[in-house]
Amino acid sequence: MPELSRFFGIVIKLLFSDSSQHNKPHVHVFYNEYTASVGIDGELLAGSLPVKQLTLVSAWLTIHEDELYRAWNKAVRNEPFDRIEPLR
User: Fold this and answer.
1) In angstroms, rounded to a whole number, what is the distance separating the alpha carbons of residues 68 and 62?
2) CA 21 centroid distance within chain
């Protein structure tokens, strides 16, 4: 599963051809022992995250919405996508 971004100990990944299970654009989020699938719109689709990390992920998704949809569209077509660098 290719890594899309990493910030504050949170890892965001995208799967190639990953449109069948959730039927909406989403990312896979990993934080310590937690894992979750979160829609690009911020909806928690599966799994769980601590409230603070879910809030950070939701804000990050909003900031990077255009980049995320570009990456999602490439990933579902099995095309390489660019990483999204964290804010500095």
Assistant:
1) 9
2) 15
DSSP 87: P
Please tell me the distance from the alpha carbon of residue 25 to that of residue 77, in angstroms, as a whole number: 13
**Domain spans of the chain, in order of start:** 3-76
pTM of the entire structure?
Answer: 0.89
Chain segment 33-81, per-residue pLDDT in tens: 999 999 999 999 999 999 999 999 999 999 999 999 999 999 888 899 9
| DSSP class per residue in 9-76 | TEEEE--TT--SSSSS-EEEEEETTEEEEEETTS-EEEE---HHHHHHHHHHHHHTHHHHHHHHHHHH
Structure tokens, 30: 């990993």
